[in-house]
Amino acid sequence: MSKFIPKDKYFHRAKRNGYRARSAYKLKEIQEKLKLIRKGDKILDLGCAPGSFLQVLSEIVGAEGVVIGIDILPIVRLPQKNVVAIQGDIREIDIEELHILYAPGGFDVITCDISPNLSGIREVDNRNVGELFVAVENVVEKTLKVGGHLILKAFFSDDFKIIKSKLANLFRTVSTFKPVASRSASSEIYLVAVEKT
Ligand SMILES: C[S@@+](CC[C@H](N)C(=O)[O-])C[C@H]1O[C@@H](n2cnc3c(N)ncnc32)[C@H](O)[C@@H]1O
Question: Per the domain annotation, does 16 fall within a domain?
Answer without folding.
Answer: no
